[in-house]
Amino acid sequence: MMHHSLMNQAHYVIVCVVFAFSLTTTGCDSIFLNEQSSENTQWIKHAAAAEQCIPYEFETIEDALKELSQANIEVVSSKKVEFPVCRACFCPVGLEYYALIAQKRLPKAVEIGWTVVSDSTEPQSMTQ
Predict the structure, then answer these.
(1) Residues 6 or more apart from 12 whose CB is under 8 A from it?
(2) Among residues 44, 83, 48, 82, which one has the least CA distance to residue 62?
(3) Which of 12, 19, 48, 73 has a Cα-to-Cα distance from 105 of 20 to 30 A?
(4) For 4-59, where are the E strands, in sequence order?
(5) What angle do CA 63, 90, 106 make, to 5 degrees?
(6) Is 10 in contact with 18 (CB distance < 8 Å)?
(7) Can you give the residue ranges of every domain in the chain?
(8) Cα 113 to chain centroid, rounded
(9) Is 68 left (phi over 0), alpha (psi -120 to 50) or beta?
(10) Could you tell me the CA-to-CA distances from 90 to 46, 49, 58, 95, 98 in Å, in that order?
(11) pLDDT tens-digit series, residues 2-41
């Protein structure tokens, strides 16, 4: 009986270690891993709002992309990214909209409030 119990404990530990390892390896993958971009394109982003407790500037990704369209900025690809944040009013909202645009339109996008994506996990010029 004791041998069977020890085997169950060993199995449980192995399952926990494998699960924990899977979380660490998959959590760092780029959100743009399957996206095609070129040297002539650039990812930009815009938070739904500046911080918690204020109305969203953009309720949906369609609203965010509409702003770009109205500024004559063509969007090649887009993504909505949600992430956990604290709930205090000074915390970020945890919702960002990303758009892949032509680099030549970057100054206009920045002018209307979008930010250039430059984090190493968010490719600025992903070539595949």
Answers:
(1) none
(2) 48
(3) 48
(4) 41-47
(5) 40
(6) no
(7) 1-30, 41-116
(8) 18
(9) alpha
(10) 17, 11, 18, 15, 22
(11) 455 544 555 444 433 334 333 333 344 444 444 555 679 9
